[in-house]
Amino acid sequence: MSAARLIVTRPLAQALPWVSGLQALGVDAQALPLITIAPLADPAPVRQAWLRLTDFALVVFVSANAVQHFFAQRPDAALWPAAVLAGSTGPGTSAALRQAGVPEVALVEPAHDAPTSDSEALWARLKHRPWVGRRALVVRGEEGRDWLAEHLRGQGAKIEFLAAYRRQPPQPDAAERALLSAALAEPARHLWHFSSSEGVAHLRGLAPQADWSRSAALASHPRIAQAARAAGFGQVDLVGARIAAVAARALAGASIQSSSL
User: Which pLDDT band holds residue 105 (cuts at 50, 70, 90)?
Assistant: First the structure.
C-alpha cells in the first residue's frame, strides 16, 4: 500500500518538531499528542536541586521533558558543573541537553548504534564506571521506571529521585479529534507512531470501543510495542528513535498483512 499519514503521539513540545522534521523528509505527518506535560505546582524542589548539583556524580534525565522542566528552574548565570555527568536515555534527550548548554564531555548517552534508546542502553555506557558511595539523581515525571536506579544502587550508588513535571491525559482539540475520527474510519490510510506505553493507554481511553485490528503502528521500544499489541493493533513494528528512521519506515508504507512483532 502507499505511504500512510503518520500520526505523531508525543507530547506537544516534542510532537511539533517531529512533525516538521518528518514533513521535510516527505512524510504526511500530523500531531495528536497522547500525553500532556504540565509543570509542577511547586517548583521549589527543582530549584533546590540546582543548588546542590555538585553533590552528585550523575544526573539522569529520562526524557527531553525532564531536561526542559529542570533547566526552566536554573538559577541565573548557573552553568552545568563539568565534573557532573548528565545521563541521557535517547537522542531527543541528548539534543535537549546540548541545547541547554551541557558540555559534551559531561554527556553520557546510548551508543549511536544501540538497538534501543532507553535506560538499558544508557546503563551499557555507565555500568563499567565506579559507583560505590557516589550519588546519582534521576530527574523524571512524578512517576517512572526504577530499572536504572536499581542497577546503579546494586553497584553501590546512592540514588535520589526528583519530579520535574507532571504527565496528564490528553485534552484533544477539534482538529485532533477529527484526526482521531479519520484514523478510526480509514485505518489503512493512517499509521500511528507511539513513543510511550502511557500514550497507548490514553488512546484507549479516548476511543474505548475502537477496533484497532486493521490499524498499524510503529513503536520506539519493545515495551511500547507490547502495549500497542495489547490494545489490539493489527501490526506493530519496532523502529529507531530518530526522525530519519521513522520517516523511512513511514514512506515504505505499512500493511497489517506483513510480518509483525
Answer: very high
Cα separation, 132 vs 121, whole angstroms: 21
Compute the half-sphere exposure of residue 256: CA atoms within 13 Å on the CB side of its CA.
Answer: 17
- Number of domains, the chain: 2
Q: Residue 147 has what pLDDT? A: 87
**The model's pTM:** 0.78
In angstroms, the CA 3 to CA 110 distance is 30
Provide Rg for the chain, Cα atoms. Answer: 19
**pLDDT score recorded for residue 115:** 66
Q: Which helix (H) or strand (E) holds 92?
A: helix 91-99
CATH at residue 107: 3.40.50.10090
Residue 53: the pLDDT is 96
Give the range of the structural domain holding residue 122, as residue numbers without chain letter.
45-167
